[in-house]
Amino acid sequence: MKHRAEVFRYVGLEMDQTTLVGHYELDGLAFDEVVTFEGVEPLDQPALRSLGELWYLLAGLSYYKAGAARTVDLGSTPLGPSGGELLRAALVDGLGEYSYRNDLSFDDVAFTGGVEVELHATATDPYKVLTPFGGGIDSVVTTTQLSSRLDQALFIVSPSSGRFDPLERTAAVTGLPIVRARRSIDAKILNDHGTFLKGHVPVTAMVTLLAAIAALANGRGGIAMSNEHSASEPNLRWKNRDVNHQWSKSWVAEELIARAVRERVGDSLVVASFLRDRSELWVAQKFSERSEYHHVFRSCNRAFSQDQAQRLSTWCGVCDKCLFINLVLAPFLSRARLRSIFNAEPLADPSLEEQLRSLVGIGVDHKAFECVGDPDESAVALVKVAALEEWADVAFLGATALLASPDRTIEELLERQGPSRVPAHWFR
Predict the structure, then answer these.
(1) Residue 1 has pLDDT above 60, yes or no
(2) What gap in Å lies between CA 339 and CA 316, rounded to an integer?
(3) Confidence at residue 304, expressed as pLDDT on a 0 to 100 scale
(4) Which of 150, 219, 230, 321 is the most buried (most CB within 10 A)?
């Protein structure tokens, strides 16, 4: 294909006691996505069906992107005003990086079809919370900082190719029960050899809705996400729109998802990010205090490849994510401790100097398309690290710190940042 398609169709959603199957077509080419849950009560309830339909709408973007069709036919899928607002934003803004990289606009996309959505209010226990868990510092901090009064379980999504070992080892340290979903993306997307358009999709929004299904099925009244304040910061401005790699982790996306969920199942299911009003440095500080996780957690994306053969068993030590995690932990952990965790020293690697400059906003026109903090957070961390005696032998750290110009201090970043939707009873 590798050109603009004409019509993307939502063909239908199948849903039984444990499984969702979404059917789609792009100019007649069929795609199917299958999600199978473990550890949930039967899904054959009207409210769960309704949340499944909301997931189905957003999951379709993984296949829509193959051709960026000019018409989206919703068929007989129920969709209300709030869900429609979420879907449109997920397409336009959630695929913002994709449209930037492929140099295409969604201004001409038209939506057709759809039927009226019904409200299926369902009772839940507000003290039972499900926490989507990715094995990095963010979800570890959420898990350990939530009130001990809560009945907390983890939610883990794995690909059909198998579970991620670092994630599983980190989850095991929590000692919490785990609810699971296995996601099988259509093989035509995974095995494409240049036929389709490619790019980033708002996967966190899709995972959030799968968590909502799992939570509601088990009577849990909350989904505790782990998206920080800086996730709302765009990478760049392009064609009069903000482009944000982390759009589906943003404050805007959180509010849109919450309203769309409320439209279908009422007020008894809260979707909120526990870290929304926190900086990456606050998260790093709290994580530094949890030594039991230091040698099991992983944030390097190369540990989470869909292809098991491509997964690394250690930190790669050279990607933006490895460098960023080292940078934000360095103000709070000794150099020796960091070296023992990562078995490498990205901050002392001269070949990564340009990546470091990019992270702190020097000589680049936009933030890296990665799940990293904003340049100001990185610059604040670097200024702190460069002043530490144990890093004095790494000359380029000091030189780069002199060029960085953060607008805030580390003390300011350890305070609350902006608004939050977190219920009071989630706190200690």
Answers:
(1) no
(2) 13
(3) 65
(4) 230
CA–CA distance, 425 with 274 (Å, rounded to integer): 12
By the 8 A CB rule, do 69 and 26 touch?
Answer: yes
Asked if pLDDT for residue 343 goes beyond 70, the answer is: yes
In this prediction, residue 310 has a pLDDT band, given cuts at 50, 70 and 90, of low
Please state, in angstroms and rounded to a whole number, the distance separating the CA atoms of residues 284 and 373: 11
What is the DSSP secondary-structure string of 84-132? HHHHHHHHHTTTHHHHHHHT---TT-EEE--B---------EEEEEEEE
Neighbours of 172 (CB within 10 A): 11
Judged by DSSP in three states, 299 sits in coil
- What local confidence, expressed as pLDDT, does residue 166 receive? 86
Beta carbons of 58 and 209 less than 8 angstroms apart? yes
Closest CA to 5 of 33, 32, 18, 24: 24
Q: Is the pTM of this model over 0.85?
A: yes
Q: In sequence order, what are the beta bridge partners of 30?
A: 25
Instruction: Report the distance separating Cα 178 and Cα 218, nearest Å.
Output: 12
| Torsion from C-alpha of 298, 302, 306, 309, nearest 10 degrees | -110
Q: Which amino acid type is present at position 280?
A: E
Confidence of residue 317 (pLDDT cuts 50, 70, 90): confident
What's the confidence (pLDDT) of residue 309? Answer: 65
Cβ atoms of residues 65 and 98 within 8 Å? yes
Partners of 341 in the β-ladder = none
**Residues above pLDDT 90, as percent of the chain:** 86
Radius of gyration of the chain (CA): 21
Euclidean distance between CA atoms 423 and 227, whole angstroms: 15
∠ CA 408-413-417, rounded to 5°: 105
Cα–Cα distance measured from residue 377 to residue 278, given in angstroms and rounded to the nearest whole number: 11
Q: How far apart are CA 135 and CA 84, in angstroms?
A: 32
Average pLDDT along the chain: 94
Separation of alpha carbons 210 and 213, rounded Å: 5
- At 307, the pLDDT band (50, 70, 90 cuts) reads low
- Tell me how far apart the alpha carbons of residues 67 and 1 are, in angstroms, rounded to a whole number: 7
What are the E-state strand segments in 133-207? 151-159, 178-184
- Phi/psi region, residue 200 (left: phi>0; alpha: psi -120 to 50; beta: rest), is beta
